[in-house]
Structure to design on (292 residues):
């Protein structure tokens, strides 16, 4: 799927699964095995080309939706999901200028996706994965996003240090909670930013067995794993941060938070000896150790 067949190419998304009062509800749709691109090669694109020609990949509303095994190349935003009770897995998003994944719907699983090579061409603060809440008042940060699972995803800021328009990608950036009953596990994040995994406003969140590394010794960075206060000052609570490897691991002060068996390391290894062997992420080490 490409805009090349359409002379005006005025649409924004290559696939748009839209659910609202006028067009009706959307549910139980599967998008699988598709190849999507704004252009086959963006090597000659200028900053202006990225901003005017890059299409968004997939937008998913509704419920019980599945987006799997798709390839998205040279896009603005990759896969944006407002759908609930859905599955987003085994997708590859390569060369993007917005966010790789967005997850705003409750009880949705994002697993085994690869997001890599961010192009910094505008004022958007780019994230590998981003979420935020919207309350009944319609304002950002006044609601709750519940039951998201982020498992086994790989987020890489860049593969080639000579990449044009290379910027600082935030890994998993969730800045306007609350975020309730989340699981963030077995992800590999290689970024040139402070935000490796950041949740602002957490309730009953588990962050475990992730590897976060810095791509270089420059600022911004090195990246952290951090459960932080909501912007309204509400502290994280009832959450577990365990068996991760990162340059920094912390939580802001709040009730019933447990931080244990984490390894503070810039290299992504080794895991803490007290971590159960059943949760090992050793098979992902070759990607971690490759020379970029």
């Amino acid at each position: 799927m490409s805009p090349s067949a359409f002379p005006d190419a005025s649409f924004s998304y290559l696939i748009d699964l839209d659910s609202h009062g006028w067009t009706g509800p959307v549910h139980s749709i599967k998008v699988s095995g598709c190849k999507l691109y704004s252009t086959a090669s963006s090597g000659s694109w200028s900053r202006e080309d990225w901003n005017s020609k890059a299409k968004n990949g997939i937008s998913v509303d509704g419920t019980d939706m599945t987006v799997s095994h798709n390839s998205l190349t040279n896009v603005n935003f990759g896969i944006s999901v407002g759908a609930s009770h859905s599955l987003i897995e085994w997708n590859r998003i390569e060369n993007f200028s917005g966010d790789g994944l967005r997850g705003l719907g409750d009880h949705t699983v994002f697993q085994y996706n690869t997001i890599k090579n961010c192009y910094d061409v505008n004022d958007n603060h780019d994230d590998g994965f981003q979420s935020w809440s919207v309350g009944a008042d319609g304002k950002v940060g006044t609601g709750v996003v519940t039951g998201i699972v982020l498992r086994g995803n790989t987020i890489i800021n860049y593969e080639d240090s000579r990449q044009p328009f290379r910027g600082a990608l935030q890994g998993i950036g969730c800045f306007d909670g609350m975020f309730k009953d989340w699981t963030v596990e077995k992800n590999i994040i290689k970024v040139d930013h402070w935000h490796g995994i950041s949740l602002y406003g957490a309730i009953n969140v588990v962050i475990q067995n992730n590897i976060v590394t810095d791509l270089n010794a420059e600022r911004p960075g090195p990246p952290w794993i951090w459960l932080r206060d909501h912007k309204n000052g509400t502290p994280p609570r009832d959450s577990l941060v365990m068996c991760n490897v990162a340059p920094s691991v912390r939580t802001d002060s709040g009730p019933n938070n447990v931080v244990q068996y984490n390894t503070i390391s810039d290299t992504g290894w080794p895991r803490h000896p007290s971590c159960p062997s059943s949760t090992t992420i050793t098979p992902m080490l070759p990607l971690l150790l490759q020379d970029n």
Summary: The CA atoms of residues 186 and 210 lie 5 Å apart. The chain has a mean pLDDT of 92. The first strand starts at residue 13 and ends at 17. The chain is about 5% helix and 35% strand.
